[in-house]
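User: Serine/threonine-protein phosphatase, Dendrobium chrysotoxum:
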Amino acid sequence: MAASPIPAGGSIDGSMLDDIIGRLLYGGRANEGKQVQLSETEIRHICVEARRIFLSQPNLLQLRAPINVCGDIHGQYVDLIRLFERGGFPPTSSYLFLGDYVDRGKQSLETICLLLAYKIKYPDKFFLLRGNHEDAKVNRVYGFYDECKRRFNVRLWKTFSDCFNCMPVAAVVDEKIFCMHGGLSPELDSLSRIEEIERPTEIPDSGLLCDLLWSDPDPKIQGWGLSDRGVACTFGVDKLVEFLDKNNLELICRGHQVVEDGYEFFGQRRLVTIFSAPNYCGEFDNAGAFLSIDESLLCSFELLKALDSKARKTVGTRASHNASTSSQSLSNLTKAISKKIWITGNKFLDYFRSMASPRSSLSITFSMNPWNSICLLFLGLSNCLEIVNIF
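Assistant: Predicted structure for Serine/threonine-protein phosphatase:
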């Protein structure tokens, strides 16, 4: 346990917070996933201050693009650092995380401490939603309780629980993209219902809050169904479309489920699941991903491949930088194309086919109506980037 620079009963000032963030970042980059030494006092003050900020902001956040939207992290701290290296460290980029920061991974404490510290440092550019694992009943079982007890004590775990009980549960980006951890609920007839949920609160076993954090889309059903999880509900494409149309929304962005490519669409691309923990639990061999939304609501997916033990020693290498640069170039190119597609017609296709190298493939679909969707899929040897203009 490290000595704390914060006096008993004091609060975190800017320099102290910067020191904590600096130690956390150094540990994630240089120590190959080894524990970062924070004091119990430092962590308690982080939780208390983050709790205060959560309660000062709405339960349904109203956010503006550009912003990066990230899915489940589950204590995979080195991969969280990789995500920031790819998307830009705060405050260079704004972030919305969809929940499930703790449990299952080896470094839940480092993960949640860095995220809460960034929330304190940049309260209007960095946003954290509550996931179903930000719940004492769940993380008591799946690892976070044991990590807190082993490294500190049960009292600290309870302090985290008090903080989690105050987190917001949903967000809307530019009045068009609805974000939460789980999914829809039969009790969610309008977004105003979310604002009526009181905080602090534990997660109940049923009802609106439970569904927002636990429910899943199901392509096999229509209407509402019972979840195999034994809690909350499932919903079909019909309920998804009905809700989006009724509330003048275009897309739902959620986490909660591991998906092979890091992201997966549902319901004619009107819902996307994002999962940001590659090689989840060391067993799934999945990619991680996050969604980057630019000012015009052009959405691009950045992928994080799983690292082997040797690669983990070189987090932040030139290869990662080059991949990010290529992705940004392709995003900028597609953004320019979307403004001119109605003029170029078939020449648009011919031009991009001529650009495709023998070692890559390119597939483009588009509409001559400039307000309809544009999809560009580029497949290379080591990267896959999909860019979608949802309007």
